[in-house]
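call fold(seq) -> tokens
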Amino acid sequence: MIRCNRILKANTPESILVMEIHDELVFEIRINDLWILPQLTAAMEDFSQFGEIPITVDTAIGQNFFDMQQKTDERILDG
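ret:
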């Protein structure tokens, strides 16, 4: 989480980490700054090298948290 926040501040100063919900991080990123997502994903997946359990990172893009949650739920149901 701290690494992701540092990446955001260094590259897209207007983007912010809005909240953490259990094992989810919610970011507010301007549409022109979505190029940063692969870097954030890599930063989170790299963290798994310190443990024995691999970390899988999924992303969803939406206008609000509800939209993103629906997309995540649909991916789970579609398998």
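The mean pLDDT is 78.
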